[in-house]
Amino acid sequence: EPVGSSPSVVFEDIQRCSPKCFCMLLENISDLVVNEDFTVEVIPEGNVAVATFLKSIDTEEFVKRCLQNKRVKEFKMTARLLELTQSIKAENIPDGVSRDYITVYFENVRNGGGPVSDVQLFPEENSAIITFCDPKGNT
């Protein structure tokens, strides 16, 4: 996989395209199959969708092809790689939750986690900053 490339691509301003149409459009551009080669998560409140590739592809090249695509231009959508980060902020943490509990929770692979190197708790704002040993997509 190319260095610095993320398996996820963020699409913004997708409101002019239905989720079904969006998935077909991505299949046409990528020559891949939705739910087999990639997954799509639509976040309607933000007019955003995230395509995550299960198959290793050159996502930078895919973003270029999307931005040059006639339909993508007609729908006035934008596409960019999802930045990888090593830290995420967790909010709405219940009172009294320990640093150990948060560490174990975010190391759980079923929760999409991985090895945690640091947890900073901010009890007054019910939040924490979790830093992973490996970069994670900040989803």
Automatic annotation (TrEMBL):
PARP14 second RRM domain location = 5-83
| One Pfam family cited in the UniProt record for this chain | RRM_PARP14_2
Organism superkingdom = Eukaryota
Q: What is this protein called?
A: PAR14 polymerase
Q: Which organism is it from?
A: Urocolius indicus
Q: What is the lineage of its organism?
A: Eukaryota, Metazoa, Chordata, Craniata, Vertebrata
Which gene carries the instructions for this protein?
Parp14_0
